[in-house]
Design brief:
Elements lengths: L1 H7 L6 E6 L2 E5 H11 L4 E5 L2 E10 L3 H10 L4 E6 L12 E7 L18 E6 L4 E7 L4 E7 L1 H11 L3 E5 L3 H8 L5 E4 L6 H12 L13 H16 L12 E2 L7 E2 L1 H6 L13 H5 L5 H12 L5 H16 L1 H12 L4 H9 L5 H22 L4 H9 L4 H10 L20 H28 L5 E5 L3 E7 L11 E5 L3 E5 L1 H33 L2 H27 L5 E3 L4 E6 L17 E5 L6 E5 L6 H17 L7 E5 L3 E5 L12 H13 L6 E6 L7 H17 L6 E5 L8 H4 L3 E11 L2 E10 L7 H7 L4 H21 L2 H5 L18 H11 L8 H14 L4
Parallel strand pairs: 1-5, 7-10, 9-12, 10-11, 13-23, 18-22, 21-25, 21-26, 23-24, 24-25
Antiparallel strand pairs: 1-2, 2-4, 3-4, 5-6, 7-8, 8-9, 14-15, 15-17, 16-17, 19-20, 19-22, 26-27
Helix pairs in contact: 6-7, 10-19, 11-19, 13-19, 14-15, 14-16, 15-19, 17-18, 24-25
């Protein structure tokens, strides 16, 4: 326990798995935590002078089962191993921490999601600026960026790190800027200094400066990157030569998607349970590394037209050459997760079976390279040129490792015959020795006449001869008795002991020699890490483009036309996700959308609930995003002047945990949009202002549209879906505002949703029809109809629309009728007064009635 506490003191915040013989044990508070998370038994053990200590443990071979559960429960886990063979010491075995596993730092296959990156992030910030670094130790990807808090927040939401590091004492500032949903860990102040960070990076990359990585001017990004490497030291991850590059995430290259847009467009996570996401629809990748890259492409759509067109040309080629697409897919299917396998080489965690998988992957690269070299498409040719089949190491693996080796090196039969003469000789001794034992058993049996005699082995006596009691009298005198059982006796002979020492000695030597030869092969493999990482990146890129081509063929997507104009013109556009979830036999109704900066900058879309306004907004953004990722789009034709930012304000959502109402959330999102407008922005506003009273909402919505239209520098293209029909008046006063509505058809007292966008405003919501469709009790629906008629009559009398006509001239508001408020309490008071027979009311009845009304209103 003294040894345990000394090790535990080094990592007090981690659950310490303490190796004792064949078990990992946890003690004290760790045992209570582990028992609860893992569902294992919690026991108590006497502990010297102390009364007891809690204890919970599990067998060492079950580590892969239990470790992921601890990490997914948000625990940091320190693995403490025995550092020497217990047979070789008479004192307490030396122990030490060999690895600290955290949610952001793991190379264990059972913890990692195969089709997702496992990023660790580090953030360094002051009052105005911030830098961020992302590292996936399982693949070696290392990225850095710097910018405003909004930009860093956008990146954190795009990359979805499993753990975020920042400076001690800055917890409140971090939550204020980036929210409280990340798993975080704080580090000492000195780690987040320029000198410490630069020194650590230069030592890791073994360079004189960071100029070659293009991050020289990212002071905050460099400090964040250095802090990540310090954290790897802290978590005992020292073999990290696969982290061979630090890449810059360039803000200018990618479309700005803030966290609201990523959430509202449901790129990676669905707001409603069971719904599909864009990533799920587009991900037809074959390899895990392709799937991870595709998610990055979705999070970071391109702005460079040349790069987008390169991707589109490859997708077009594959769409037109279906047989070549199938052939290439088949080769990529052989490759598996090349990126993570080569990372295991670097950290010394690769097993023999994974080395054979690596061999198969390298074999599959050769036909891909030769296909690409002879391909008509130039972009595919350029990709193929970068591939390196690493023939030398590939041939060495094939020559040295057996075809179907075990996962564990100590199981034997990993290295082929003919690789080492010494190994071959030892194998002959071991295996012919066992044949000899079989012959010996036969010989002794016939010599003594004991037919049931058998030679066996156990760890206590080694090899022995077992004779049943019925034949005990036939045992020769020279045999030495070693053990008496209930029904039998066990003996040894000189000859048996001699062969035992030969066989066991050979088996131990075989294991040691196989391990040495395998480790030499892994060391040789580590020289090819960068070449194989490049192969993995190129294959992943091909996989993503094949995925886009598969989606295009399966879902009838067409090639968009990207240019640097400022026009978005989509013909018969569809929502890529909704159309996948429609009932069988029902087709998605497409729509045209045209946005430019001269005639139609702001489109105000009115129409009833459930008509499809929100879907139309989202599909426009998704079509633009897909085009800028390099994918074909769900539209017959799409001419897209590239956008640099996409903003959305969609749906109502209270953030109760942070004490923010629906309206506060709406205003936060709207403020973020208005403060970051650009000339190439695409803005989607859905039901803005509905979190407050009707006239507040109308006023705010009007002023926001006016601000976007009248902005001095940026004519941002905007789609605004609203229930406020009063906003249709804006078309008369603002030249680039146009009214559209989503059509419906009334048949009797039923409504049919046609879901077609047509020119002109609408002045009817059909909310009561929707309530009826939802199964609202008929009495409620009928009463709502009555109230609607009364309110519309009152509206006509008060001419509510008139003041709105003059809003553009900044005219003042208007007086609202007391009974226009849609308030059930006021309605009840009105009904009470309406039904009073004043002519026959006595004074005392009048006072009682007044008292009732007072109670209804909640006054005391």
């Amino acid at each position: 326990m003294k040894q345990y506490y000394a090790i535990k003191d080094k990592h007090p915040d981690a659950v310490l798995l303490f190796r004792v013989g064949d078990f990992y044990e946890t003690f004290g508070e760790d045992a209570i935590k582990a028992a609860e998370i893992l569902g294992i038994t919690l026991t108590r053990r006497a502990n010297g002078a102390a009364s007891y200590v809690e204890l919970a443990g599990f067998p060492h071979h079950a580590l892969d089962t239990y470790l992921p559960k601890l990490v997914r429960a948000g625990q940091r886990v320190a693995i403490c191993e025995q550092l020497e063979d217990p047979k070789m010491t008479k004192k307490i075995v030396k122990r030490g921490i060999t690895e600290l596993v955290t949610p952001g730092v793991s190379i264990n296959d059972n913890i990692l999601e195969h089709r997702e990156n496992n990023f660790l992030a580090s953030v360094h910030f002051d009052k105005k600026m911030a830098g961020v670094a992302f590292l996936d130790i399982s693949t070696g990807e290392f990225l850095a960026a710097e910018g405003s808090f909004e930009y860093i927040d956008k990146l954190l939401n795009s990359f979805k790190p499993k753990e975020v590091l920042f400076q001690k004492g800055k917890g409140n500032d971090f939550i204020a800027q980036f929210g409280g949903k990340f798993y975080t860990y704080t580090m000492d102040d000195w780690v987040y200094t320029e000198d410490a960070a630069v020194d650590r990076l230069l030592r890791h990359f073994e360079t004189k400066s960071l100029k070659g990585f293009g991050v020289n001017d990212l002071n905050y990004g460099v400090i964040a990157s250095g802090a990540i490497l310090h954290y790897l030291d802290l978590t005992q991850h020292h073999q990290v030569q696969h982290i061979s590059n630090l890449s810059r995430i360039e803000e200018d290259k990618y479309v700005w998607l803030d966290r609201f847009t990523i959430r509202n467009l449901e790129l990676f996570g669905a707001i409603n349970e069971g719904a599909k996401t864009l990533a799920q629809v587009l991900d037809k990748t074959i390899s895990p590394m392709g799937s991870r890259m595709l998610k990055r492409w979705i999070a970071l759509p391109l702005k460079e037209i040349a790069a987008i067109n390169d991707r589109l040309s490859v997708v077009e080629y594959f769409v037109q050459n279906e047989s070549e697409k199938e052939e290439l897919s088949e080769h990529i299917r052989q490759i598996g997760d090349l990126e993570r396998i080569i990372s295991k080489v670097a950290v010394g965690r690769i097993n023999p079976r994974e080395v054979v998988q690596l061999l198969n992957a390298l074999k599959a690269i050769e036909p891909i390279k030769s296909y690409g070299s002879s391909c008509e498409n130039e972009v595919i040719q350029r990709m193929a040129e970068q591939l390196n089949p690493c023939i030398t190491i590939r041939d060495r693996i094939e020559k040295e490792v057996t075809n179907d080796p075990p996962v564990l090196i100590n199981r034997g039969n990993v290295i082929r015959s003919g690789v080492s003469e010494e190994l071959d000789d030892l194998r002959k001794i071991a295996f012919s020795g066992k044949d000899y034992l079989a012959q010996m058993q036969e010989r002794e049996s016939s010599k003594t006449g004991i037919s049931s005699l058998k030679i066996a082995f156990n760890n206590v006596f080694g090899y022995y001869i077992e004779v049943r009691n019925t034949h005990k009298d036939k045992v020769p005198e020279e045999w030495i008795r070693k053990q008496t059982l209930v029904n039998a006796e066990r003996y040894i002979t000189e000859e048996l002991k001699e062969y035992e020492s030969k066989i066991l000695g050979a088996e131990e030597k075989i294991m040691a020699l196989e391990a040495r030869l395998f480790n030499e092969l892994v060391v040789a493999l580590s020289e090819y890490i960068q070449s194989i990482q490049l192969n993995a990146a190129v294959i992943a890129r091909m996989d993503c483009l094949l995925s886009f081509a598969t989606c295009a063929v399966e879902n009838e997507y067409y090639k968009p036309d990207l240019d640097d104009s400022k026009v978005i013109n989509i013909k018969t556009g569809r929502h890529p996700v909704i159309e996948q979830q429609l009932p069988i036999g029902e087709s998605y109704i497409p729509n045209d959308v045209l946005l430019d900066q001269d005639e139609q900058q702001v489109i105000i879309i009115t129409g009833p609930n459930m008509a499809g306004k929100s879907a139309l907004l989202r599909q426009t953004a998704l079509i633009v995003l897909m085009a800028q990722m390099g994918s074909f789009v769900p539209a017959a034709e799409a001419k897209i002047g590239y956008v640099d930012k996409i903003f959305t304000r969609v749906g109502a959502s209270d953030n109760i945990s942070l004490g923010e109402s629906t309206f506060m959330v709406e205003m936060n999102e709207a403020a973020s949009i208005l403060n970051n407008l650009s000339d190439r922005s695409l803005i989607l506003l859905d039901e803005l202002g509905r979190g407050t009273s009707t006239y507040d909402g109308i006023s705010i919505a009007w002023s926001i549209v006016e601000f976007i239209h009248e902005h001095a520098h940026s004519k941002a293209k905007t789609l605004f879906a609203t229930h406020y029909h009063e906003l249709n008046e804006m078309e008369k006063s603002f030249s680039r505002v146009k009214n559209y509505n989503v059509t419906i058809k009334e048949v009797g007292n039923k409504v049919i949703f046609l879901r077609k966008l047509v020119r002109g405003g609408s002045n009817h919501s059909f909310g009561i029809h929707v309530a009826k469709m939802a199964g609202m009790p008929p009495s409620v629906v009928n009463r709502a109809d009555e109230i609607l008629v009364q309110l519309e009559d009152a509206n006509r009398k008060d001419s509510l629309a008139k003041p709105l006509d003059g809003m553009a001239e900044k005219r003042a508001g208007f007086q609202m009728s007391f009974f226009q408020l849609d308030d059930p309490v006021l309605k009840q008071i009105r009904d009470e007064i309406q039904h009073l027979d004043i002519n026959n009311l006595t004074p005392i009845e009048a006072l009682n009635k007044l008292n009732e009304i007072k109670k209804i209103s909640g006054l005391k």
